[in-house]
């Protein structure tokens, strides 16, 4: 069975989590790079990666790589690639591009040359001078880095964060893939309580419940690759059957989400229903500064408000201080706080045991990770 070189793209800071997910799916032959993880797989593996990966952004197939210091070299290199094995003669061919530290700096010109070269190759193969482009979308990307051209075919379509459950958004929504990556970074196993006391529209809690119930995040959505002729429909059917077989109906330990805004909780409840995890999450309208738990240990993971406007700094700093005092009363809980506010730790009252730089959209944030202390052994 033919194997392809594949790329799972990832937001900065989440590459290791995507690599870990790929390993749990059985893909050990991988290479972690900035913003992506390379691995090899069959047509079935393309379907599995799209349906199962939680923190990745999209799955790309590497068509070829070659030096391209000039437009002639770019055209010849692209035309020589095996397009007829991947694209139908009526394929719709949008081309995206980027250039970093390369001689060819005009991205529109690079995209134009790539498109002409692909059309020329397909036209010669099919014996026609023009391609109708009336068929399924096959989005190509050309990435130039230090004069090395990498041509990839996007098998995903809409980004993998488009799970399908979030049809409405609240203020400052957290991307689903970022939320899933954060849940993975907590090392939560699903066997102890997980709480988000600033839950907003519920993304962290919902992604936690999907993970806990072994629900494949891409199970119910469509992918561009489903229309690709070289990926049999049976591959997608088999990947979805695997997802059905592994999903759990329920788990013993509940996920909890709370927010001071009743409308946010209504939105979170709506999204949880759409995601099929409503029975696994308990929602509550509550002030995070009053949070407490009788559970001896658990995981608290959250994305509190930041100061976005002049005059808000004092209020959020006070919020961090009060929240830090609350967390200190639960020393056996691990706490994970995604925050884009400089000086968070000073106001929270404790330096993080570990810190991970992430980006919430274009906002640079830190995931502050605090380990819980061990429970005393019973006498």
Written overview of the protein:
The model has no long low-confidence stretch (mean pLDDT 95). Helix 2 (43-52) packs across helix 7 (233-246), helix 3 (71-79) runs parallel beside helix 4 and helix 5 crosses helix 6. This protein has ten helices and 14 strands. Strand 5, helix 4 (107-126) and strand 6 (140-145) form a beta-alpha-beta unit. By secondary structure, the protein is an alpha/beta fold. Helices cover 31% and strands 23% of the residues.
In short, what is this structure?
By secondary structure, the chain is an alpha/beta fold.
Give the biggest sheet: 7 strands, mixed
Mean pLDDT: 95
Radius of gyration: 23 Å
Overall 3D geometry? elongated
| Overall helicity | 25-40%
Secondary structure elements and their pairing?
Blueprint: E1 4-10, H1 15-24, E2 30-33, E3 36-41, H2 43-52, E4 56-67, H3 71-79, E5 95-100, H4 107-126, E6 140-145, E7 148-154, H5 176-185, E8 194-196, H6 203-212, H7 233-246, E9 255-259, H8 262-275, E10 281-285, E11 299-302, H9 313-328, E12 334-339, H10 344-348, E13 354-360, E14 363-370
Helix pairs in contact: 2-7, 3-4, 5-6
Write out key terms for the chains shown.
379 residues; alpha/beta; elongated; 7-stranded mixed beta sheet
């Amino acid at each position: 069975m033919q194997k392809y070189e594949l790329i799972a793209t990832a937001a900065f800071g989440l590459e290791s989590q995507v690599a870990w997910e790929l390993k749990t799916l059985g893909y050990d032959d991988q290479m972690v790079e900035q913003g992506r993880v390379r691995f090899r797989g069959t047509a079935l593996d393309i379907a599995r990666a799209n349906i199962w990966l939680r923190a990745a952004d999209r799955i790309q197939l590497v068509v070829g790589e070659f030096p391209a210091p000039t437009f002639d070299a770019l055209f010849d290199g692209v035309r020589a690639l095996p397009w007829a094995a991947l694209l139908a003669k009526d394929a719709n061919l949008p081309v995206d591009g980027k250039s970093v530290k390369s001689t060819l700096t005009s991205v529109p010109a690079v995209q134009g040359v790539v498109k002409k070269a692909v059309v020329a190759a397909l036209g010669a193969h099919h014996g026609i001078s023009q391609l109708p482009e009336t068929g399924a979308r096959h989005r190509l990307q050309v990435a130039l880095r230090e004069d090395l051209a990498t041509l990839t075919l996007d098998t995903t379509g809409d980004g993998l964060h488009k799970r399908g459950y979030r049809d409405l958004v609240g203020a400052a929504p957290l991307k689903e893939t970022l939320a899933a990556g954060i849940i993975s970074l907590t090392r939560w196993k699903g066997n102890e309580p997980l709480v988000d006391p600033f839950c907003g529209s519920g993304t962290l809690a919902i992604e936690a419940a999907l993970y806990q119930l072994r629900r494949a995040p891409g199970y119910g959505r469509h992918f561009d690759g489903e229309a690709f002729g070289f990926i049999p429909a049976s591959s997608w059917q088999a990947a979805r059957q695997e997802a059905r077989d592994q999903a759990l109906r329920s788990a013993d330990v509940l996920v909890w989400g709370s927010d001071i805004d009743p409308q946010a909780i209504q939105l979170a409840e709506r999204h949880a229903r759409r995601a099929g995890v409503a029975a696994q999450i308990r929602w509550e309208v509550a002030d995070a500064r009053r949070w407490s738990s009788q559970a001896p240990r658990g995981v608290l993971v959250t994305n509190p408000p930041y100061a976005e406007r002049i005059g808000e700094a004092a209020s959020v700093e006070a919020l961090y201080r009060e929240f830090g005092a609350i967390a200190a009363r639960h020393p056996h809980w691990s706490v994970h706080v995604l925050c884009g506010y400089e000086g968070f730790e000073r106001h929270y009252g404790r330096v993080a045991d570990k810190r991970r730089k992430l980006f919430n959209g274009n906002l640079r944030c830190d995931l502050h990770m605090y380990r819980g202390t061990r429970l005393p052994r019973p006498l």
